[in-house]
# Entry
Amino acid sequence: MTTLAHLPGIRSRRISTARGRFQVLEAGDPVGEVVLFVHGNIAAATFWEETMLALPTAYCAIAPDLRGYGLSDRLPVDATRGMRDFSADLHTLSGALGLERFHLVGHSLGGCVAMQYAIEHPQRVRSLTLVAAGSPYGFGGTKDTDGTPCWPDYAGSGGGLIHPEWLQRLKMGDRSDDSNFSPLRMLRERLLTRPLAPRRESALLEAILLTHTDTDNYSRDLMPSTNWPGFAPGTRGVNNAISPRYCNLSALATITPRPPICWIRGDQDQVVADQALSDVGTLGAMGLIPGWPGVVFFPPQPMVSQLRAVLQRYRANGGTYQEHILAGTRHMPFLDDLAAFMGVWLPFLSAVNGR
# Structure
């Protein structure tokens, strides 16, 4: 069986549940205050290891590999359910681990999963931390802070956003740095601003390459469209699950009870931004995709502004949230500047526990 190298202090085990088998990392006090971490797309639980170890030892840090990622089972993702397959897995896994209430932390795609979980099980969430979280209206194909679709068929979102060369290199287990589409270059230049220690970089690259790339997981499943840019979301795999056709998390604004929310992001994030470099609206405006219909019909998706609008409605309904922007960091601020990340996040956790 494939294994990954872990930092000292990280414990790893495999948990069998009614929904499948999940690889789980743990650190800290096994009976301490639980913090449950959810990783992002093309990643795995190992990305959280530094953060888990930086928590005071009184906490119990838990991070699973999501279905189709890392060493968890290669379970299919029904895109038409949005984030619900992942959320249901978390709920079943938390039950198997005997967790009743916990602090929930989600990064990128994991932020969307965490929002879905909070919508479905708000009473289980002591606090919600969103780190460079995806928009509550998914990725691609919407034009304003209300998540209005650019086209009725949600063209410009889903599996068609994945570049064929990038996907092929991921499938081949490419470890080179000779292309803008190599996983290693993506890690070094798109996700981070600072170099990692070589052994740690190697471990994270191996985790990326464990991403399952069949049609029901990370794939280019799509439907042809007469609307620009020529494709609409399919029905299979994670990249369609985050299409706004299926992913709408705006109900977060109305949940009750309302856990405190902490939103942390990097000021140089190129992945989740109001002009994200993977968004066809941004690429069209830059002249990189022919036939762009213009800003009226297909502007760059205002991802950050969309999340802020939902959180402002959450506050108006009686909830609380705080937003922190970490200077000099990209899509993974907890790896770019762990000290700065913990400097804003630990006081939030401490305040919640003191309530």
